[in-house]
Design brief:
By secondary structure, this protein is of the alpha/beta class. It has 11 helices and 14 strands.
Length: about 280
């Protein structure tokens, strides 16, 4: 049986607080450095939890790792739970998102290893090609700083807009050229696939696209290139836990030939190994 528990965000928020208060007794506090229990890893369902469940089912036992996976449906709770010790690690985010989260929230989370890339894509129920977007078309983009910037850069790379020179964290205010007079609707990243019936197109993160039944390599009208891409998805822990032997075991398993083959076979280019 897979050691996977599914929770709603609301329940997890309350659970994270309660577990944080008892972390010293649970063996998950970074201060106690008690690494004897199972390694509990937070992950969004697709593809992160699927990859972890493959590891748990096929590789962990042989490596002497007791792995437990907790599924989250948002991009905030996995980090707050890792910070407060409710979980030992998480696997769902990119380095730019992690850096922005640490800066804004005052957390001290660090990357252990990069595992895969989920190409960001532009999808539409109304047009077959980006060139067919009408003047004044509305495009939904993720509302968090990192993914919105990434979305705008995707549109700029493909000639739909131009951005001001030298901008690292782009917002709609940084658009220098907009020949189609595109309008932007900012929504939570998880909601971008659901917005497709209400807008002309939407920029969707790879994991949410797959969860919604979209096939990025086939269905995206624009797809991010994997070449020199900084948005690799990471295994992350609270600073000080990088040397947890359980974390080291998981990092090695996540970058194993077996996991590489699993990702390539299952996701057919919609998720790309980065090792």
């Amino acid at each position: 049986m897979r050691n996977t528990a599914k929770f709603t965000t609301a329940v997890l928020a309350a659970g994270a607080l309660a577990l944080g208060l008892t972390a010293c007794g649970s063996g998950k506090s970074s201060a106690s450095h008690d690494y004897s229990g199972p390694l509990v890893v937070a992950a969004t369902p697709v593809p992160h939890a699927e990859v972890l469940n493959f590891v748990e089912k096929n590789l962990a036992k042989k490596a002497g790792l007791d792995l437990q996976v907790k599924e989250f449906t948002d991009y905030i709770t996995p980090n707050t739970a890792t910070q407060d010790g409710s979980v030992d690690a998480n696997y769902f985010q990119t380095k730019p998102y992690l850096d922005d989260f640490n800066k804004k929230r005052g957390t001290d989370l660090v990357s252990v290893v990069g595992v895969h890339l989920e190409p960001l894509g532009l999808y539409s129920h109304k047009v077959k090609k980006a060139a067919d977007l009408k003047n004044g078309a509305t495009i939904a983009v993720p509302n968090d700083a990192d993914n919105e910037s990434r979305a705008l850069k995707l549109l700029a790379t493909n000639g739909l807009i131009t951005l001001k020179s030298g901008v690292s964290q782009a917002t709609p205010q940084d658009i220098a050229g907009n020949p189609k007079h595109l309008q932007f609707k900012e929504v939570e990243a998880a909601q971008t696939p659901r917005s497709l019936d209400d807008v002309d197109a939407a920029v969707v993160n790879g994991n949410y696209a797959i969860s919604a039944g979209l096939k990025p390599a086939k269905d995206a009208i624009i797809l991010e290139s994997a070449k020199n891409n900084p948005y690799v998805n990471l295994l992350v822990v609270k600073k000080g836990n990088e040397n947890d032997p359980r974390v080291k075991k998981l990092a090695k398993l996540l970058t194993s030939p077996e996991v590489k083959k699993f990702i390539e076979d299952k996701y057919q280019g919609s998720v790309v190994p980065s090792f």
